[in-house]
Design goal:
This protein is an alpha+beta fold. It contains 4 helices and 6 strands. The chain has one domain. The mean pLDDT is about 90.
Length: about 170
């Protein structure tokens, strides 16, 4: 489906990608990775989507997708663990194709205290070029709510997203 140029992002789609998953992921990256790699992953996503749906009900919007429509991809970005959530195709600009949490922890040594794990939360979003054509936009959300836009992103394919994320360094490096 071609994204609509004039449609507002769907509340549930946008809020889940840009707020709910980010908050959970960055508050405890190791727990987030463990949950998304577990058999309980879909239940976890279902609970988050339900909370988002309740929040979006104030706008008279209901999700048009379920947690079963979200796909989880556990990967490594260089040597670091990563959990990617693949969303249903965007229908409006600013909706996400993917989110990714990359936890910069080296599991070959002692596992650090959970609060000290450095992590980054990325989104690959649907955007629009200056000429009006669709494009992807690579962005990062930080724990303080800052949205960093890195410009054009890769094609909306998991492996292309993984390759692009491999270019980023751990925070403070």
């Amino acid at each position: 489906m071609q994204p609509s140029f004039d449609a507002e992002p769907r509340c549930s789609h946008y809020t889940l990608a840009h707020y709910a998953l980010r908050q959970v992921a960055l508050s405890d990256p190791l727990r987030y990775l463990a949950v998304l790699a577990s058999p309980d992953a879909q239940k976890h996503l279902e609970n988050l989507l339900q909370a988002v749906a309740e929040s979006c009900a104030a706008r008279n919007e209901k999700p048009d997708f379920t947690a079963d429509d979200l796909k989880i991809h556990c990967r490594r970005i260089n040597r670091f663990p990563c959990a990617i959530v693949e969303f249903p195709p965007p229908q409006a600009f600013a909706e996400a194709f993917f989110t990714a949490l990359v936890a910069y922890v080296d599991f070959s040594g002692p596992i650090p205290d959970r609060p000290s794990v450095m992590a980054r939360y990325f989104t690959l979003e649907c955007g629009v070029s200056m000429d009006g054509s669709p494009r992807t936009v690579l962005a990062e959300w930080t724990t303080d709510g800052t949205h960093n836009n890195f410009g054009d992103g890769p094609e909306p394919a998991v492996e292309a997203f993984v390759e692009t994320l491999a270019e980023f360094n751990p925070p403070g490096a």
